Amino acid sequence: MHIDNNTKLSALKASFNKKFPGLKIEFYQKKHKDHTGSPNDIMYKKDYSIKEISDVIKGAELTLDPQMLVSDFEDMLESQFGLHVQVFRKSNQLWLQTITTDDWTLEVQNQKGLNSMVD
Q1: Domain region containing 43
Q2: What whole-number distance in Å separates Cα of residue 80 and Cα of residue 116?
Q3: What is the pTM of this model?
Q4: Average pLDDT, the chain
Q5: Cβ atoms 24, 12 nearer than 8 A
C-alpha cells in the first residue's frame, strides 16, 4: 500500500483491516511504551491525513507482512512515518489493545481475533 502525506487515516485502517479482519489499528497523538496501552483521550477520532498529524514528507510503500511482530509493525509506523499506532484484536464483541501480546505476529493475532468471533 502506498502511503504519503495525503493518505487518510481511514484508508490505512481499512487496508489493515482488509488484510487482517480480526484486527484493527488506531492512531494516537503520542507513542506508547512497550506492553503499555494508549489512553482513549489521545486517540485521533477525526479522519486526518498523514500531513495533519506527522512531519513525514516523502511517500513509501507500506507492506503488511503477516509474519511481522505487532511490536515491530507499530515501531515501523513510528520510525518510517511518525505515526503512533496501537493494534487491537477482536475478542467476541470487544476490541482489545494487544499490549500483553505485542510479541505475537500479526497473523497469530488475527487468527485469535477471528476465532473469537465464531465462539
Answers
A1: 2-118
A2: 32
A3: 0.90
A4: 90
A5: no
